[in-house]
Amino acid sequence: MPETPSNFTEFDAAAVGEALGANARKTRDVAFGDGETLTFGKDETTTVEVYPDAMVARVTTERARIELFGVPSYTVANERLVFIHGPENDESRLLIRGDGKTSYYPALRATESSRTNETTSSGHQDSPTPTVPSESVTGRKIEASTPSSTLSSTPEGEKGDEVQQIQLQGRLGRDPWFSTRDDHPAAGFPLAVNPEDGGKAIWHNVVTFDDTAGMLREAFGKRQIDKGKPVAVTGQPVVVEEPKANGGVKKSVEFHATAVTRVQAGRPRSTR
User: Fold this and answer.
1) Full-prediction pTM beyond 0.85?
2) At the N or C end, where does the chain have fewer CB atoms within 10 A?
């Protein structure tokens, strides 16, 4: 069923609880006033607190807590509750499924550059790509990573609260893979970037989501982007932490791309 946003200040805990099989009850917070609490999951290990008047939503799981301020709206559809957060052109979403699994992710939007249009070898693109941070709390922790010396970034680094995106150019090491993460389309591929000094190629694990992943699938279907093809990707590196069976944590780096563009000609390289 389509997701139609509802006003957060009119949050209907009883309706949400009935739709998702969650237990709802009244609560009160010293700072935020009267609210509603819903518990999700078989063992009720995920708790959602909603304070409509304060426009605050708080989610607590066994491993994490997320608190959102100034929440304008929410949706209930497909057995999940979603809080919409942030300005319209840079939204993020906090998703809670009926089984208690939770994720916080950017609402990636397609840009002109992600429609597999061709770009010059200089990496110049006419359409800017929005800055999108990425985070998840469903069994894995994802946090922004400071670009290493092998990646070009804005010299000033971060400006204000925005994480500056970077662009890489290289060739696909294999055909793209397609899957889902937290019920959202995902796709990716290994990207080989040749340094400007002509040294050994540096490999990056590129991952895309939502519309960008869908467009990558279309481009792959037309054999526009597949193994060996030169592309430019725009986004940011993130550190992904996944729990191990023995209780440890496995760390890896992914390059979360908000745009994937064919490169017309020229030697693939990392660009600003």
Assistant:
1) no
2) N
